[in-house]
Design brief:
The protein is built from 13 helices and 33 strands. It is an alpha+beta fold and 628 residues long. A hairpin with a 5-residue loop joins strand 4 and strand 5. The longest helix is centred in the middle third of the chain and has 17 residues. The chain is globular and about 95 Å long.
C-alpha cells in the first residue's frame, strides 16, 4: 500500500468547508496556488488536485457545476491524460465549458478554444440512452504543468420528464487530493441521496447535502474490473424508491403495447407455420430479433418511452424499447405473460446501485415464465436462441416493470460455454493419421460463434474456423471445414473438419502415443483468471469429448489411458476408455467430461481455482501404446 498523499500545511488550510465552485480568474488563481505549494518531485503519476461538484435545483431547473484541477509530474502523465471527458445527454442537457486551460511550470496560461473540443457518441449498439462525451484536449501541457476546467450542465424538469439523477465516484484511477460534492434544492423537486463510499464524509440537511474527502488514493486496477460495482458512489435522484422508477417508465410501455392492431395478423401467420407453443415463441422471437432491424430511436420524448407497436411493425425497425414492446405484444397474443425488464448493463451488484434512479438503466429486455422456467429474451440479439440468455446481459442488475419486486439480476446458466467434440482418428501403419472432428457449440457458445461468423462470406467463415483450429489444435495443419447453423437461431452450431497428417513417428521404433484432447485443453487455456485485487465471476463451461482412435491390429496395444474421476468444489474431470479388437484395426474409445460450473470467486480463491485448472490441463493428453 502506498503511503498517504500529503500537502503543505498552508495548502491544507485552503480546503473548503463547502463545495466552492470556481471558474475564470478565480479557478486559475486556485490552480496557481496549488502549483506554488506542491513538491513536484514527490509525485510520479497524474494527480488530481481538486474535483468539485455543485448541484442546484431551482424552479424545476437543474444545474450541475463542476471544476477539476490536475497536475502532470511525468511525461507519461502528459501523453496519456492531458484531456478531460465530460458525459452528458444531448437530448435533455446543455453542456457549457466555462473555463478550460493549461498552466506551464513558468506560469503561462494557455486557454482551450473550440477547436480543442470534440463531442462523440458514447453508447453501444444495443442501449437506449443517448449519452455523449465531450473530449477537451488541453493545449501546451508540459511536465510539471497543470490543467483546469470548469463547466456546467443544465436540464429543465418537465411534466413529461420529471426525473433526474447524478452519480459521482469520489475515488477514481488517479490520486485525488481534494474532493467535494454539494447539492441544494428548492420545493420544485425533492431529491433523495445515497452514499456507498466509506472514503467520504457527508452531512445531510432537509434540502442540502455536502460531502468532502481529502487524500483519496487511486483505486487499484486489475485484469477484470467492473468499476460501477467496485467504487463507492454518491447518488442524488428525484425518485424515492424503485417503485417510483417503475411508475415513471411503465406507462410508456403500456401505451406502446396497447397500440397493436398489426400484431394479430402476424401472430396468426406464424401460428400456421409453427407447431406448438415453443415453436410459436421461437418464430415470434426470430421475427422481432431478425426482421425488425435495430435503429436507435431515443429522440426527444422517446428516451425511455417506446414507439407504438404498430409504428414499429410498419417501419420494420426500432431500438431495444421498441423491439421489446413489439415482442411483448406478440407473446401476449399467444397467451404468454411477458413483461418489460430494465437492465443496467454495466452493473452486477444490486447493493451498489445507490439511490433509485431511472438513469441507472440503459437497456430493456423481455422476461416471462414458461413451463416452470423463467426466460429473458433480448430482442436486439439476432444470434441467440430464445431458450438461452444473451451472454452480455447475464447477471446484470434488472428491474421488472410489472411487479412489486425491487432490484434483481438477469439469471445466469450453470454453464455459459458448452461444447461437444467428437474426434474420429485413424492412424496409418506408416505413422500418419486421418482426423475427422465434429464440434457442436451449444446455446450461448453457439450464439458467440454465430455472431463471429454471421457477417462473413462462406469462404471467410471457413478461414475463420481454420484459424480457430490453428489456435487450439495444430498451427501447421491444413483442415478442411464444413459449417452448419450460422444462419439460424438454433441452440446449436456445428462444424465438421477433416485433417490429414503425414507420418510423424516410426512405428518400428515402438508405439508410445499421446493424443492431446485439444478442444478440452483449449477451454482450460481460456479459463485462467488473472485478478489480484478484486473477486471475479466465472461463467462456467462444460466440455464433453469423445475420441474414437483406430490403430493397426498388429500393433497389439496393451497400455491405455487411466480412468479419471477428479472432483473438486470448483469442477470435475472424468475419463473412461473402452478397447475393442478387430481383424485389421483395433479401436480405442475414450470419453472425457470436464465441468466447471459458474460461480463467483473471491480474490483469495483465484489461485486455488487456477491450480485446479492446471491439474486438469495436465490430464488432457490421452496416452496409449504397446509395452513389450
Amino acid at each position: 500500500m502506498r503511503s498517504k498523499l500529503f500537502l503543505l500545511l498552508s495548502l491544507l488550510l485552503t480546503l473548503p468547508v463547502s463545495a466552492e465552485f470556481l471558474q475564470g480568474d478565480a479557478l486559475i488563481a486556485r490552480a496557481k496556488q496549488f502549483a506554488s505549494e506542491l513538491e513536484p518531485d514527490a509525485h510520479s503519476a497524474l494527480i488530481g488536485l481538486e474535483r468539485t461538484y455543485k448541484v442546484e435545483v431551482k424552479d424545476n431547473k437543474v444545474t450541475v457545476y463542476g471544476h477539476k484541477i490536475w497536475f502532470y509530474p511525468t511525461t507519461a502523465s502528459v501523453q496519456n491524460n492531458a484531456y478531460e471527458s465530460i458525459y452528458f445527454n444531448q437530448l435533455n442537457e446543455q453542456l457549457t465549458v466555462l473555463t478550460a486551460a493549461s498552466i506551464t511550470p513558468a506560469g503561462k496560461v494557455n486557454y482551450v478554444n473550440e477547436s480543442h473540443q470534440k463531442v462523440i457518441a458514447e453508447d453501444t449498439y444495443n442501449t437506449f440512452t443517448e449519452t455523449e462525451k465531450m473530449i477537451v484536449s488541453f493545449p501546451a501541457v508540459e511536465v510539471g504543468g497543470i490543467t483546469l476546467i470548469a463547466y456546467k450542465i443544465e436540464e429543465t424538469l418537465t411534466p413529461e420528464r420529471p426525473f433526474w439523477s447524478i452519480r459521482s465516484y469520489p475515488q477514481q484511477t488517479a490520486d485525488m487530493l481534494n474532493y467535494s460534492f454539494e447539492a441544494q434544492w428548492d420545493d420544485s423537486a425533492r431529491l433523495y441521496f445515497d452514499n456507498t463510499s466509506e472514503l467520504v464524509s457527508c452531512e445531510q440537511q432537509p434540502a442540502r447535502v455536502f460531502c468532502h474527502a481529502v487524500n483519496l488514493e487511486a483505486a487499484e486496477s486489475d485484469s477484470v474490473v467492473n468499476w460501477g460495482d467496485q467504487l463507492g458512489q454518491i447518488t442524488l435522484s428525484t425518485e424515492p424508491d424503485w417503485q417510483a422508477v417503475k411508475a415513471q417508465v411503465r406507462p410508456g410501455f403500456v401505451n406502446a403495447i396497447e397500440n397493436n392492431q398489426g400484431v394479430q395478423p402476424l401472430v396468426d401467420e406464424f401460428a400456421d407455420s409453427a407447431d406448438g407453443k415453443q415453436a410459436q415463441i421461437q418464430r415470434i422471437f426470430e421475427f422481432v430479433a431478425r426482421d425488425i432491424r435495430y435503429v436507435s430511436r431515443s429522440e426527444a420524448g422517446y428516451d425511455i418511452v417506446p414507439h407504438n407497436v404498430d409504428e414499429t411493425i410498419d417501419n420494420r425497425f426500432g431500438d431495444c424499447k421498441d423491439k421489446s414492446a413489439l415482442l411483448i405484444a406478440m407473446l401476449r397474443a399467444i397467451n404468454i405473460d411477458a413483461e418489460p425488464v430494465l437492465v443496467a448493463t454495466k452493473r452486477e451488484r444490486p447493493g451498489m446501485a445507490g439511490a433509485a434512479a431511472v438513469g441507472l438503466f440503459d437497456h430493456v429486455v423481455v422476461c416471462f415464465n414458461f413451463a416452470g422456467q423463467q426466460y429473458c429474451l433480448d430482442p436486439t440479439d439476432p444470434y441467440t436462441q430464445w431458450q438461452s440468455t444473451s451472454d452480455w446481459i447475464q447477471g446484470r442488475v434488472a428491474l421488472n416493470l410489472s411487479n412489486d419486486a425491487s432490484l434483481t439480476t438477469i439469471p445466469r446458466p450453470r454453464y455459459r460455454w458448452q461444447l461437444k467434440a467428437q474426434s474420429d482418428i485413424t492412424i496409418t501403419p506408416e505413422g500418419g493419421q486421418q482426423e475427422l472432428v465434429t464440434l457442436t457449440f451449444l446455446n450461448e457458445y453457439a450464439s458467440l460463434m454465430r455472431q463471429n461468423m454471421a457477417g462473413l462470406s462462406q469462404p471467410k467463415r471457413l478461414e475463420y474456423m481454420v484459424d480457430v483450429y490453428h489456435e487450439v489444435a495444430n498451427e501447421d495443419a491444413e483442415p478442411v471445414f464444413e459449417i452448419s447453423g450460422v444462419d439460424t437461431m438454433s441452440s446449436r452450431l456445428t462444424t465438421h473438419s477433416e485433417t490429414i497428417y503425414e507420418p510423424y513417428f516410426n512405428p518400428q521404433q515402438g508405439i508410445s502415443l499421446a493424443e492431446n484432447d485439444s478442444w478440452l485443453r483449449g477451454e482450460l487455456s481460456s479459463s485462467w483468471l488473472n485478478n489480484e485485487v478484486y473477486g471475479q465471476f466465472y461463467p462456467g463451461f462444460l466440455v464433453e469429448s469423445e475420441y474414437k482412435i483406430q490403430v493397426p491390429h498388429e500393433w497389439a496395444l496393451n497400455r491405455f489411458p487411466p480412468d479419471l474421476n477428479l472432483e473438486h468444489q470448483y469442477g470435475k474431470l472424468t475419463r473412461s476408455y473402452r478397447f475393442e479388437e478387430g481383424d485389421e484395426l483395433d479401436t480405442l474409445y475414450v470419453s472425457t467430461t470436464l465441468s466447471m460450473p459458474s460461480r463467483y470467486l473471491a480474490v483469495e480463491e483465484i489461485k486455488a481455482f487456477n491450480d485446479l485448472l492446471n491439474v486438469f490441463y495436465k490430464q488432457a493428453p490421452i496416452t496409449f501404446g504397446h509395452d513389450s
